[in-house]
Amino acid sequence: HDSFFGFTNLFRRKRVKNEWRTPYPVIISNPTGRQVLWNWNSADTGLFCCTFALSVLMSRRAIKAVYHETIRQYVFNNMLVFSFISSLMCGGVNSFNRLR
């Protein structure tokens, strides 16, 4: 699942012993941040890019109601930072879940 749109496999879950699990086995039961970063692959990058692009489009739509240019720029910049962090977290969670 190391393709750009491989993150779609994130939605494949099955129930095992009252817990939702992925269909592949556990690699590391409690991975560290470094292990999650080393496990980052193209699927996580694809998830990051798609989430960030969608967030930017939503941010552009949200600031149309703001008329003052400096406030509009301030709000858009803050939304971009939030979008970047959220997208990075989505990719990290995908990498983390592949290990667990």
What does this structure look like?
This protein is mainly alpha-helical and 100 residues long. Helices cover 58% and strands 6% of the residues. The chain has a two-stranded antiparallel sheet with strand order 1-2.
How large is the radius of gyration?
17 Å
- The total of beta strands comes to 2
- Label the structural class: mainly alpha
Return residue spans where pLDDT drops below 50 for at least 5 consecutive residues: none
What global shape is seen? elongated
Indicate the percent of residues in helices.
55-70%
Assess the beta-strand content as a share of residues.
5-15%
Counting H and I runs of at least 4 residues, what is the number of helices? 3
Q: Largest sheet, described in full?
A: 2 strands, antiparallel
| Overall pLDDT level | 84
Spatial order of strands in the largest sheet: 1-2
**Helix-strand pattern:** EEHHH
User: How far is the N terminus from the C terminus?
Assistant: 15 Å
Give the SSE map.
Elements: E1 14-16, E2 19-21, H1 33-38, H2 42-62, H3 69-99
Antiparallel strand pairs: 1-2
Helix pairs in contact: 2-3
